[in-house]
Amino acid sequence: MEGSAKSLCQSPGCSIQVSRIMRPDDANIAGNVHGGTILKMIEEAGIIISTRHCNRQNDERCVAVLARVERTDFLSPMSIGDVAHVSAEITYTSKHSVEIQVNVIAENILTGAKRLTNRATLWYVALSLENVDKVVEVPSIEYESSEQQEEGRKRYEAQKLDRIETKQRSKDIILPAINVEPFTVGYSQSSLIHLVGPSDCALHKFVQGGVTMKLMDEVAGIVAARHCKTNIVTASVDAINFHQKIQKGSVITVSGRMTFTSNKSMEIEVFVDVDHVMESPKGKASAVTAFFTYVSLDKEGKALPIPMLKTETEDEKRRFEEGKHRYLNTKAKRMAQVQKIQ
Fold first, then answer.
1. What is the pLDDT of residue 114?
2. Residues of the chain with pLDDT under 50
3. What pLDDT score was predicted for residue 2?
4. Catalytic: which of 26, 82, 217, 273?
5. Which of 162, 303, 220 is nearest to 36 (CA)?
6. Is 217 tagged catalytic?
7. Among the options 28, 58, 73, 275, which is catalytic?
8. Which of 9, 60, 182, 277 has the most CB atoms around it within 10 Å of its CB?
9. Catalytic annotation present for 273
């Protein structure tokens, strides 16, 4: 598998690669491919390999659905004409979940040059095609060593705990803003309403996680562009947890707001609420939340300074400090990784 170390899984069918050339409709006006397009490709590779694996030894047909995406960094922008090679590998299985590690390589087909653009870890669960509320057991894989299996178990326990904590957080609401000043939270906040159609869904008639992530990236990109008034690109996405199945015919509202700015980056919080319009008594429910980080680029692709976010309310000031804490933690982790490599 390109861009990865030796395979951890010794079972057959543990890795796949899908490739696609980037087209103009995949990119922004500056020619940079949207982060949401890459996220959607990553998820599609994950759903293929995990669904294939989950049906290897099960008599009951099932489809894998995305439960969580770990933090994803965009290491290098992808451009129109590049070929994206998305390599996915199964690295751990629990009783009811599959961990997929994904690498994305961009290839310039004119020169043959390749570069790593993304690494991501995704978690899937398998749902029965006959009963979408039933979680099907996952076939186990063979590991190269017991140490690798134990490391996978630790990652599984950590993500499980984080998903529980995220689900227990109180739901937040983004209210409309009126007569707002530039560089405030209300000035750039944005929302998008989307009716889930058949093309958004997989075999079980529920929306694919990659479709949701693409819409989230679009809204976050609008927020970032409104704040900066420049070309912007996705730099990273924090862990994304999926708490609600979104069925065909539902209406989803994707809302985003600026929470923090540093000198060279900005953090946008994105919410996804689902309205099961065919089952009106249920009302709206929170389906997904995540933090997207963007950077602003000039025509040469160099980072531009970010206008300082003006916080007005106590909640905005609290969210700014929380975002600053996440920013400093991420910066410290990166410096530690660089020192470890050196």
1. 97
2. 1-6, 170
3. 38
4. 217
5. 220
6. yes
7. 28
8. 9
9. no
